[in-house]
């Protein structure tokens, strides 16, 4: 299922974020990202994930990544943004793709 696959990706990113925190010389920022990813993963594990809560976490991480040039241009930043896009695609009704004939 999409939810479980997304959660696995997030768990990998949490580990990678914690592992590389010293490489980017912004350990506090990456620690904040990891904690926010943990909150998102916990929300995804709930029977009915709260879209607003998920999107708040996505917004926070997205802001941090795009505001920090080195992180934004890094492989880790690209992976983070990719996962954030997946969450938005799945949980933000404004961006959900319709499966109708006009798509």
Summarize it.
With 103 residues, this protein is mainly α.
**Quantity of strands, as a count:** 0
Q: In sequence order, what are the helices and strands, one letter per element? A: HHHHH
Give the mean pLDDT: 89
Instruction: Please compute the radius of gyration using only Cα atoms.
Output: 14 Å
Q: Give the termini distance in whole angstroms.
A: 23 Å
* Category by helix and strand content: mainly alpha
Domains, number: 1
- Low-confidence region ranges: 99-103
How much of the sequence lies in strands comes to under 5%
The percentage helix is over 70%
Spatial shape: globular
The count of helical stretches stands at 5
Give the biggest sheet: none
């Amino acid at each position: 299922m999409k939810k479980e696959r997304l959660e696995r990706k997030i768990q990998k990113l949490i580990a990678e974020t914690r592992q590389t925190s010293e490489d980017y010389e912004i350990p506090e920022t990456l620690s904040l990202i990891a904690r926010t990813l943990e909150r998102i993963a916990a929300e995804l594990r709930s029977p009915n994930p709260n879209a607003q809560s998920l999107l708040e976490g996505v917004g926070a991480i997205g802001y941090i990544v795009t505001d920090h040039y080195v992180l934004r241009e890094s492989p880790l930043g690209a992976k983070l943004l990719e996962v954030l896009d997946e969450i938005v695609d799945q949980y933000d009704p404004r961006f959900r793709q319709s499966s109708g004939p006009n798509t």
